[in-house]
Write a structure and sequence with these properties.
Radius of gyration: 24 Å
Low-confidence stretches: none
Distance between the termini: 55 Å
Helix content: over 70%
Number of strands: 0
Structural class: mainly alpha
Amino acid sequence: MKEEIFTHLDNPARLEKMYRANKAPFKRAFDVIYPELKGNQLADFWHERLNYESDDINWGIKGELIFVVVISLIAGLIAKLPHFFTIDEEFFYPRNIGFIVFPFVSAYFAWRNKLSAGKIAFSAVAMLAGLVFINLLPNVKTSDTLILSCIHLALLLWCITGFVYVGETVNNVQKRLSFLKYNGDLVVMTALILIAGGLMSAITVGLFSLIGLRIEEFYFKNIAIFGLAAAPIVGTFLTQTNPQLVGKVSPVIARIFSPLVTVMLVVYLVAIVYSGKNPYNDREFLLIFNALLAGVLAIIFFSAAETAKTQKTKAEIWVLAFLSIITIIVNGVALSAIIYRIATLGITPNRLAVMGGNVLILINLVLVTVSLFRTLTKRTEISEVGKVIASYLPVYFVWTIIVTFIFPLLFSFK
């Protein structure tokens, strides 16, 4: 695309057509070649256009803020259902917590992207099927498949939200990477909202206590619960209408934490040897080990998505490649421990789910690592890393379907 921009620099109509067809790749290519074009009137215009950031807060298109307020209130009402109908909270929340957030975030993206009726219907039916299925599962408190189904249903709803996010361009790699970036931005924005909300709640409760009114129970049951339900929805609205708010924070976090996590993992692996902890026989340690793996994997994917969208130094790519290698080693230890436990103790839903997840993650990590090293050896562009990540996401979608719907039946709800 860099060569095309050079070729058509004197053709504004052609440049506009190229930009509208592939906005993210166009901006990335233009930012690379702009230093050579600086001083050219048209190039300076495009630079200002592509990099303009308003200092004002944008409240979205007409009716968008009202739509967000309405769906946030509905989400809060759903979160309150156990109080309205005396439903057992231990039954309701583990099964339905994903439905308090994801359907409404999906509704927002469907409305904003003007999604076709067919895709809206598909997404709605998929979510409704999950809602009916999870609430019809037997209420066996010791059921491993129930816990697995609840966890993977939340991941399935996340995948459906991603399907809605990409809109009509399901196979668009850049849109899939944009969805991953949105998740990183959402985490930052939601954390800020929750911190601010927590401070306001503490001040409110404290002020009322000074005049002898104890409002803690009423406040948290009737106000705070609406705030918790609305936080990711409002966070989504803000990240989409004002990308400048956290658009530069998330990449900085990724850039800082990638090397720190790499050092931490190396030290942790060495410490495991000296501590005498054995993941092959210690079940709790193995669970924590896999939780660590999931967290590191999220950092790798977010960092790689950021790397694929912008120009990075060779040192940054080396850090990400080394982090991927260390994580492959961690994954290999966890996977071998699971296989050992299955061979010696037999198959259980938890062991099979963890083994399947680890295998998928291992394959994905290997593909990402190979792509990073191909980039370092100049055999491919850095954008190929993003393509690898984006192309593999549907595999996780299929796995969440298997664990959510098939495992309970396969293991007779045990």
